[in-house]
Amino acid sequence: MVDERRRETTGFMIAAVVAAVAAAGYFMWREHVQSRAHALLADALAVQEARIAVPGTPAAPGTYPTERARLEAAIAKFKAAADGYPSTDAGIFARYQEAADQLVLGNPAAAVTAYQEVIRRAGDTIHGQMARLGLAVAQARAGQYDQAINAFKELAQRKDGPLPVDGILMELGRTYREAGKRADAQQTFNRLVAEYPDSPFTQEAKRELDTLNKAA
Fold first, then answer.
1. Cα-trace Rg, the chain
2. 3-state SS of the chain?
């Protein structure tokens, strides 16, 4: 009986040691992955902040001849970081930056795809919610007005969220206007002015209303 107990105790000890080694290996591996993902993200951010060469002069090392060239290089870096480590925080943020830069570059379809991937990975976190806003903007730029309007309306209902409702209403009003829905645009801009009189978007909303009234 003593021998049997000893064997059981030894077995439990071995199992505990194996589990501890496996856990340590996992955390070391995860730390390595996170470290590598952050390094790639830092590299992409450095490109995004790189200087633009003075027109008419050769581009020095670390500079880019045009804003477009810098954006294209940054997008490639962000995409590499996101593709390599898609589930890490750094990878998700890299995908978000890829989407935002695609939108600036005038590629709304590519931005839509990247924002959708952020939403799939990030869920309802701050990055996921910001990606939903970015997705709606990209859809509006791509002429997908119905999808964009529905997204903006849903986001505007979340008054306890981290996103500024006044800014969302501004984008919703613009999208209504671009979609040819003048009455809806006026109603949205009026709501912004009434509910958020101190908003930085209020004066712009009033100008939009003046323009819509003159075009009536």
1. 25
2. CHHHHHHHHHHHHHHHHHHHHHHHHHHHHHHHHHHHHHHHHHHHHHHHCCEECCCCCCCCCCEECCHHHHHHHHHHHHHHHHHHCCCCHHHHHHHHHHHHHHHHHCCHHHHHHHHHHHHHHHCCCHHHHHHHHHHHHHHHHCCCHHHHHHHHHHHHCCCCCCCCHHHHHHHHHHHHHHCCCHHHHHHHHHHHHHHCCCCCCHHHHHHHHHHHHHHC
At 54-74, the pLDDT tens digits run 887 776 788 899 999 999 999
Question: Cα 149 vs. chain centroid, distance in angstroms?
Answer: 19
